[in-house]
Amino acid sequence: MPILTAGTLAASRELTARLLGHIRSGAAASRAELAELTGVSRTNVTEKIGELLDLGLVIESGRGPSTGGRAPRRLRFNADAATVLAVELGMTSVDVAVADLRGRPVVREKHPGGIGVGPEETLALVTESGTRLLASPPVAGRPLVGAGLGFPGPVRFGLGRPFAPPAMPSWDGYPIAERITDRFGVTAWVDNEANMVALGEFRCGAGRGVSDLILVKVGSGIGAGLITAGRLHRGTLGGAGDIAHLPVPASEPLTCYCGKRSCLATVASGQALGRRAAALAADGSSAALARSAASAAAEGRALTAADLAQAALGGDTASSRALDEAGGQLGHALALLANVFNPALMLLSGGVMGAADVMLPAIRRTVYAESTPLAGRDLRVELSDPAGHFGLAGAALTAIDELLTAERLGTWPTAARQPTG
Fold first, then answer.
1. HSE of 92, CA atoms in CB hemisphere, 13 A
2. Cβ of 187: how many Cβ atoms within 10 Å?
3. Distance of CA 9 to CAs 49, 58, 159, 229, 410, Å?
4. ∠ CA 367-371-373, rounded to 5°
5. CATH code for position 45
6. C-alpha to C-alpha distances, 110 to 171, 177, 198, 287, 404, nearest whole angstrom
7. Which of 98, 99, 105, 208 is at 20 to 30 A from 335, Cα to Cα?
8. 418 within a domain of the structure (yes/no)
9. What is the largest CA-CA distance in the chain?
10. Structural domain tally of the chain?
11. Structural domain for 19, as ranges
12. Do 265 and 138 belong to one domain?
């Protein structure tokens, strides 16, 4: 019997994970195809597939076409072997889901209110919601093996903690990942929500088949998720994609919450557009917004970007001009990204994109005018589909990708479960 060293054990685990990755991606669906794709002997492939079958992560599903001999048994990834908790922590809502190992939310709850109440109350809500969902019939009995959470601000990915989130001091350095691990007994990963949406779009949405894309989320704040050469780019500490503070050529420079002036967030974020709507209502520039302001005051709320969009779509000139200007400023920032990263696709998501009918033409016009000929040649600027729940999918996939690495594969419980139907 050969002596197994640390090196050979690591190589063995790496091969198992690599074979699973090929099956998971659909690159190979039989032992013969895996052997041909990897250059590994059929005997070794068969041994590793046996391990994956025992774990329940791979199942045999019928037979493939014969090439002269016995028809091969087809293999496929068993997305029902386990579940992961997926959470989107937002400024105005909290989404909680239990997803399968493809990253597809199986059951989901959306809670209004957002994270402004602070970390303890928010994570208590996540615990209550997640526990309820895990007991629901569609997922009951499947083991929970990990959790992924998206946070609307900078995150130290390796630590699972927010880092100096704007206007949310109670979240700064808060051990989100540790708290979720304590409450659910599984490893948790936390990332910026724009990264989560980018990963979800890349794997499950419009980004499939695209190796380089940028997802820009424009809500209360602004952030970007960068996919380069088929991989999510987080940067050294997790700070890549924080584009809210890119300088833009504003006609009236405003001071940002970061202390600098003329940041993108001061002119194109949801908060900035809400302030712009209030200003247009107050100075008499927009009768439509003045009426909206009166209604909003009666409801005990401030004007929002949605009010500005509604007025613009109703034909209000001042509102349309404001959104066109904001779209141009956002397009300026996106042109900078296009020139640096040269993506094939830019996707726009977030609540502010409810005003896309007015803003998108200005965004596209500016991106194509200011990007270099080569960067703009085949670039597409499109909207993300909000019905795709790509933030939740990305949160789930963040955890799944980590769980299926060679270091962790087989260290967490799975239960072989033959899918029905």
1. 9
2. 18
3. 16, 21, 28, 29, 13
4. 130
5. 1.10.10.10
6. 21, 20, 20, 35, 28
7. 208
8. no
9. 86
10. 3
11. 6-77
12. no
242 and 366 in a common domain:
yes
- Kindly state the tokens that stand for 179: 């708290």
Q: Do 249 and 372 have their domain in common?
A: yes
Instruction: Say if residue 101 is in the same domain as residue 242.
Output: no
Tokens representing 39? 């250059």
Kindly report the length of the chain: 421
Q: Are 379 and 370 in contact (CB under 8 A)?
A: no
Cα–Cα distance for residue pair 88/395, rounded to 1 Å: 7
383: its two tokens: 């909207």
Token representation of residue 344: 């094939």
Q: Which residues contact 269 (CB under 8 A, 6 or more apart)?
A: 218, 219, 220, 221, 222, 244, 352
Residues 6+ apart with CB under 8 A from 232: 195, 198, 199, 202, 225, 226
3-state secondary structure of 152: coil
418: left (phi over 0), alpha (psi -120 to 50) or beta: beta
Residue 348, both tokens: 């726009």
pLDDT in tens, the chain (421 residues): 455 566 677 888 999 999 999 999 999 999 999 999 999 999 999 999 999 999 999 999 877 665 555 667 899 999 999 999 999 999 889 999 999 999 999 999 999 999 999 999 999 999 999 999 999 999 998 999 999 999 999 999 999 999 998 778 999 999 999 999 999 999 999 999 999 999 999 999 999 999 999 999 999 889 999 999 999 999 999 999 999 999 988 777 888 888 888 899 999 999 999 999 999 999 999 999 999 999 999 999 999 999 999 999 999 999 999 999 999 999 999 999 999 999 999 999 999 998 899 999 999 999 999 999 999 999 999 999 988 999 999 999 999 999 999 999 988 865 433 333 3
Do 378 and 343 contact (CB within 8 A), yes or no?
Answer: no
CATH number at residue 301: 3.30.420.40
Of 236, 240, 221, 203, which Cα lies nearest the Cα of 340?
A: 240
Q: Do residue 304 and residue 350 come from a single domain?
A: yes
